[in-house]
Amino acid sequence: MSQLKVFFSSKPKQIAQAIVKISHQIFGKISDVEIAIIGDEEMVEDISENLKKFSFKNFNFFHKPIDVFFDEELKKIKNEVKFLNDYKKSDIFLIGFKKGEKVFSKELIKKLLTMRRQKPIFLIEGALPGNIDPSVSKLSNLFLFDLNDLEQFFSFFNQNKISEKQNILLDEIEKNENLNSFFKKLNFNLSQKQIFFDNLNAFLLREGDINFKKKIYNFFESFRE
Fold first, then answer.
1. By the number of CB atoms within 10 A of the CB, which of 9, 120, 137, 154 ranks highest?
2. Is there a single domain that holds both residue 141 and residue 122?
3. Of 154, 182, 208, which residue is a domain's last?
4. What is the pLDDT of residue 185?
5. What is the mean pLDDT of residues 57-75?
6. 47 φ, ψ to 5°?
7. Are residues 87 and 122 in the same domain?
8. pLDDT of 60 strictly over 60
9. 23 and 88 share a domain?
10. CA 65, chain centre distance (Å)
């Protein structure tokens, strides 16, 4: 098992979600976006399986070793003209070979952008030490991310959702005097309120007895000052 696979063993789903989120920001509707998955790295395959769950327009897969794709002696793709023609419609590239040759050079990506009339490319480094020349990041309309970047973006997006949820929670508590008084009596902080509120909602959704729900309501009402 590769070092990357071990480090990110629980992350493919989250990374795929980050890719989708960033794709929306770059391209708009993902239903118009095409993805190229290139490489034999296990993590790349795991992420691609998660990306299939989303409504991208098309997937172009190349799950083969690097020597099928790249001439290590000449340090170039074996058939560059064919590659450019085959992948000129791809908007996102998820790339990761087990060998760390810099397959994707600045010159190659520049040619691809020219063929695309400068339509943006979202380029993802999916392996360690990697197969993309970092200098490609200097190109206009090129967005380069590695898996660490995507993991951090997922955490950022998730934190925003947590903040939204906490704001909703505060609104709900303010509207419900019984719950508000109950939390004050127990001196709950926001995190404790969130846990209690979520569990109470889940419990009451499972419990269908109206009389029992009324008893729960009366219980909270007993804390009102």
1. 154
2. yes
3. 154
4. 79
5. 91
6. -65, -40
7. yes
8. yes
9. yes
10. 25
Residue 182 tokens read as: 């109950």
Residues 116 and 168 in one domain: no
Q: What value does the mean pLDDT take over residues 36-60? A: 94
List the one residue out of 37, 74, 85, 88 whose CA is nearest residue 59.
Answer: 37
Q: Do 119 and 143 form a contact (C-beta atoms < 8 A)? A: no
Cα separation, 144 vs 164, whole angstroms: 29
Boundary of a domain, candidates 154, 176, 196: 154
**Amino acid at position 162, single letter:** I
145 bridge partner residues = 124
pLDDT higher than 80, residue 178: no
Distance CA 80, CA 109 (A): 11
Using a 10 angstrom Cβ sphere, with 0-12 exposed, 13-18 middle and 19 or more buried, the burial of residue 218 is exposed
Q: Residue 77 belongs to what domain range?
A: 3-154
Please state the domain count of the chain. Answer: 2
Q: What is the largest CA-CA distance in the chain?
A: 81
SS (H, E, C) the chain: CCHHHHHCCCCHHHHHHHHHHHHHHHHCCHHHCEEEEECCCHHHHHHHHHHCCCCCCEEEEECCCHHHHEECCCCEECCHHHHHHHHCCCCEEEECCCCCCCCECHHHHHHHHHHCCCCCEEEEECCCCCCECHHHHHCCCEEEEEHHHHHHHHHHHHHHHHHHHHHHHHHHHHHCHHHHHHHHHHCCCHHHHHHHHHHHHHHHHHCCCHHHHHHHHHHHHCCCC
The whole-model pTM stands at 0.67
Check residue 155 and give its pLDDT. Answer: 73
